[in-house]
Amino acid sequence: MRTPLKLGVYALGLAAVFGAAAGVGNIAGPAPAPAAHTDTHHTATTPTGAGHDDHQDATPGGLQVTENGYRLQPLTTTLSTTSTAPFRFRVLGPDAQPVTGYTVSHDKELHLIVVRRDLSGFQHLHPQRDPDGTWSLPLAVATPGQYRVFADFQPAGHGRGLTLGVDVPAPGDYQPVALPAPQRTATVDGYTVVLDGTLTPGTASKLTLTVTRNGAPVTDLQPYLGAYGHLVALRDGDLAYLHVHPDGTPGDGHTAAGPQITFFAEVPSAGTYRLFLDFQHAGVVRTAEFTAVAGTAPAPSAAGHGEPGHTHG
After folding, report:
1. Phi, psi (rounded to 5 degrees) for 269
2. Which residues, at least 6 apart from 292, have a Cβ–Cβ distance to it below 8 Å?
3. Are 85 and 91 spatial neighbours (Cβ–Cβ below 8 Å)?
4. What is the largest CA-CA distance in the chain?
5. Above 70 in pLDDT, residue 19?
6. What is the pTM of this model?
7. By the 8 A CB rule, do 39 and 105 touch?
8. Tell me: the pLDDT tens digits for 46-73?
């Protein structure tokens, strides 16, 4: 996936996790670190999608269907809420032909994020690619609505990773869900994840997520896609996408397998963000979800929020 949680151009979001009444925007934590963690796609101080190019695109990742000549082309035009159905798409290159060469990042050639535009129904998926460049996977969403589909990838020979996004509808009676209020704690499948740290716009902010189960620290997290956790952030309002991987690597001799997972995240603007943390334990990947406020953005209403967490199959 893509690198420092920098809302500038994989962002991102991007996890997840991602005084309690003060909200995440005022969470007390260690002072921001001087530099964010570096992913294989981007430098720590560069907006997602900007990489090392001399010309730095200021557009946040995931807001565009096309960038640098690459285009995300959905071949499936609607999503199903009643049964799992194939979802197919291609990435077209500058020559208008399907891209068939990719650089593997965190064990995958391409990472697919699907989320409803009200930031509910988050899914982190990994489709399969046919030799002709067509990607496909079985997909169903829980409720009708407009969904944003993000493809996070790095073409072979390209200097940096890209995140492209496109809207795909799920027909039916759409009932919007209000964004949950900022909070420090999320629960999913008997696990509790506590977020410590403050999102400060324009600064690499240290976020520490602590995982416990039934009150006991989880010290045997399992590597998932080459890391003990993956954090995706999406900005409320436009769904600008950020993604960051944790500090340290499994098996490096000093990174503990929990209970804490540390990220260095940089968001460029004040605003409300939804964070999604993927972590694996006991052979199952789970997602803890948080709402965080950076700067002085008003907190969203707590009414009518969606499910608190998501389990990967």
Report:
1. -140, 155
2. 18, 23, 24, 25, 182, 195, 199, 233, 272, 273, 274, 275
3. no
4. 55
5. no
6. 0.78
7. yes
8. 333 333 333 344 678 899 999 999 999 9
Structure-token match 């716009």, residue found: 201
SS3 state of residue 20: helix
* Residue 63 C-alpha from the chain's centroid: 14
Q: Are 289 and 279 in contact (CB under 8 A)?
A: no
Q: Per the structure block, which two tokens stand in for 85?
A: 């159905």
Looking at mean pLDDT, say which of 12-26, 111-125, 192-206, 261-275 comes out highest. Answer: 111-125
How far is residue 21's CA from residue 284's CA, in Å, rounded to a whole number?
Answer: 31
What is the DSSP secondary structure assignment for residue 59, as one 8-state letter? S
Task: Give the span between the Cα atoms of 26 and 296, in whole angstroms.
Answer: 10
d(CA 88, CA 189): 31
User: What is the b/e burial string over 55-86, where b = at least 16 CB atoms within 10 angstroms of the residue's CB?
Assistant: eebeebbbbbbebbebbbbbeeeebbbeeeee
Across 148-181, b (16+ Cβ under 10 Å) vs e yields bbbbbbbbeebebbbbbbbebebeeeeeebebbb
Strand partners, 86: 138
Peptide bond just before 259 cis, omega within 30 deg: yes
Average pLDDT over the chain, rounded to whole? 82
* pLDDT score at 86: 97
